[in-house]
Design a protein that fits this description.
Layout (H helix, E strand, L loop, with lengths): L3 E4 L5 H12 L3 E6 L3 H11 L3 E3 L5 H14 L3 E6 L14 H29 L2 E6 L2 H5 L5 H21 L4 E8 L5 H4 L3 H9 L9 H12 L10 E4 L7
Bound molecules: acetoacetyl-coenzyme A.
The site of acetoacetyl-coenzyme A (CAA) has 21 residues, from helix 5 and helix 7.
Length: about 240
């Protein structure tokens, strides 16, 4: 039977490309989404992949959502923590709510999804968790103390959980995308984005598929010796 994969924030942007790549790999895919019902319905119409709504930043809602998927579709063996938001602003203008909301969804979402699915993976002796971090969690970014902290936290979370999963056949890895041509990046002021793109050695924004191919590799059956790692897919913008 095909393994069940849940991709959070899976109905558009990078998440949508990940859903399609995992289906191509033969997985039974469920997309989670937070609130954009119209986009989710359009996604399901276009791809045939079901979209389930819950807020990954809400602990109870995530436990309930994952339990429903497990009961109605099958045990969740692959999780891609892709859901993320930005609330950019320089620190002196950033509100507590802008800080808290980004931490709650971007980093808290990883914890909540892992709490819902990791114990089962551990018991069954097989699992794949891929967390979508960010170049900006590695290098920092002006106007993003909230987002950079949450994404940097994701990289630490990945390395810690990888150690807990290793002897149970559960790998936990992260991908650190650079600037990708999604709605999130389109929201960056044009003059600022122009300067950022000028610093990408490959000379362009990434495409969602560039990230999805990395995720598919990490979720594949043969990727058994790679865990706790961060795969940078950023057009050469940040190397270390
Ligand atoms: N380094 C140094 N100074 C900078 C700077 C930078 N990178 N960016 C802006 N500044 C300076 C400006 O030059 C300006 O200085 P002066 O007042 O002396 O001219 C000052 O900061 C204020 O700039 P803004 O007018 O842009 O200020 P603002 O308050 O309207 O907006 C901002 C600030 C919200 C940070 C805005 O510049 C912005 O949105 N920047 C983009 C942030 C970004 O890259 N976000 C990534 C989103 S995509 C993503 O996160 C995906 C991923 O994982 C990669």
């Amino acid at each position: 039977m095909a393994r069940v994969a849940v991709v959070t924030g899976g109905t558009r942007g990078i998440g949508k490309a990940i859903c399609l790549a995992l289906r191509e790999q033969g997985r039974t895919v469920v997309a989670n989404y937070g609130g954009n019902v119209e986009k989710a319905a359009a996604f399901t119409r276009e791809t045939g992949i079901p979209a389930w709504q819950w807020d990954v930043g809400d602990h109870e809602a995530t436990l309930i959502g994952c339990e429903r998927v497990a009961n109605e579709v099958g045990p969740i063996e692959i999780v891609v923590n892709n859901a993320g938001i930005t609330r950019d602003g320089v620190l002196h203008k950033m509100s507590w709510e802008d800080w808290d909301e980004v931490m709650r969804i971007n980093l808290g979402g990883c914890f909540n999804m892992a709490k819902a699915t990791f114990p089962g993976m551990r018991e069954r002796g097989w699992g794949r968790i891929v967390n979508i971090g960010s170049l900006n969690g590695q290098a920092g970014q002006y106007g993003q103390v909230n987002y950079a902290s949450a994404k940097s936290g994701i990289h630490g979370f990945t390395k810690a959980l990888a150690q807990e999963g290793a002897k149970f056949g559960v790998t936990v890895n992260a991908i650190a995308p650079g600037y990708v041509d999604t709605d999130m990046v389109a929201a960056v002021p044009a003059n600022v984005l122009e300067k950022i793109v000028a610093k990408i050695p490959v000379g362009r924004l990434g495409h969602a598929e560039d990230i999805a191919r990395g995720v598919a590799f990490l979720c594949s059956e043969n990727a058994t010796f790679m865990t706790g790692s961060t795969m940078s897919i950023n057009g050469g913008q940040h190397m270390y």
